[in-house]
Amino acid sequence: MLTVLIRYKGSNGSAKRFADEMVSSGIVEQIRQEEGNLRYEYFFPADEGESVLLVDSWADQEALDKHHKLPLMGKIKELREKYDLHMEVEKYQSLIDEEDEKYIRR
Known about the structure:
Blueprint: E1 2-9, H1 14-24, H2 27-32, E2 37-43, E3 51-58, H3 61-68, H4 72-82, E4 86-93, H5 98-101
Antiparallel strand pairs: 1-3, 1-4, 2-3
């Protein structure tokens, strides 16, 4: 599993408005329906009002690559520009194994 963390930063509430429009326009639901998407959720830091964190998880790199090639990415780029957002991006690969699973309550 791959997880991409994207922190969108804006001003005057633009990051929140971006996330709201992503949801209301149906883009978020379309992404969640893509093959290989495991999670697509926005979170808002309690102590910082001008950013939003996207947690975006995929089954593998191939699924993420397919997502990046869809026309939908153009719409997302337009919205980022509309709200003048800047991004910090981190990507992680899950290394949880059988030994780790012993300690995880699901």
